[in-house]
Amino acid sequence: MNFIKVLAARINVRRHPDHPELWLRLGRAYQERAELHRPETRFLDIVCPDPTSEVDEPNVVYLDPAPLFFNKAIFAYQRAISLKPDYAQAWEHLGAAYTQQYRRGYWCGDDRLQEGLTQDKQQRLAIAASAFQQALKIEPDNAVVWNNLGFVYGQLDRFDDEVSAYRHALKIKPDDVETWHRLTTVYYNRSQPDKVAQVCQEAVKNIPLDAHSWYDMGYANEELGRLKDAAEAYNQARQLDQDFPGPWVRLGVVYARLGRVEDAVRVYSDVIEWNAKQRNKFWLAISDLKRTEQGEAVLRHLKSRYPEFMSKQRL
Fold this sequence. Notes:
With 315 residues, this protein is mainly alpha-helical. It is built from 16 helices and no strands. It folds into three domains: 1-139, Serine Threonine Protein Phosphatase 5, Tetratricopeptide repeat (Alpha Horseshoe), CATH 1.25.40.10; 157-238, Serine Threonine Protein Phosphatase 5, Tetratricopeptide repeat (Alpha Horseshoe); 242-315. Helices cover 71% and strands 0% of the residues. The protein starts with a helix and ends with a helix.
């Protein structure tokens, strides 16, 4: 089906070579085709042939056609931009194509030295960032582009710019769950639980039904030693998504650390008795429970109450 879409788009640009919208359509068709292929191999230096040509083969030996299709998509987007320099969608898709190449690991080489590969990756990311910036000059309220730019900045280790991009996206779409998660992850990766807690506090005001934001807030508070706040957040997350193992795993640990042994036992008992889908995640709590006397007391209670189940755990 995608081949037919590519063929139709190719015919259209031949008939109307000066229409930027048709070049954009051709680029999207090639990019979709590239994304259908699993990123299993890289191949030798890729020449970027004219995407309107009948031959889909570069003048080199290769094992996976996806990089060729990505390059044809890039060629088409560049052609659209040359015809219409203020074409925001073309700039956006050009940046997305380079970003996808980065994500999938397709570079201009097969077994090059790591230094060369790293340099090539940085160049592609820099081009993607530039394309997204151009798109935003034309359409500054495009939250999707701000999100994509934030990802690219993150890969380029431009921390402040990454945070700023996600903040811009959230000003436009404050209820976008993915963007809140990305911003939270930025601070997690930098080991800043205080910032994580702050971002999650903002997040739950805008997306109060998102269990993962409540969980992240609980985990950050736990890291900061604010155990009561952590327990409240974990409880909220558990109520919102009963099949999400993280909240109840951590809630029992936090209750144990607070000396609330019976509450911890109650949390784990509910899972063991009523949630067959999640009970096998109990092992995630064991190592933390064994670190405190209260945690050991929780384990003893569970052993006496559920001997068969507990005998199967790695204690």
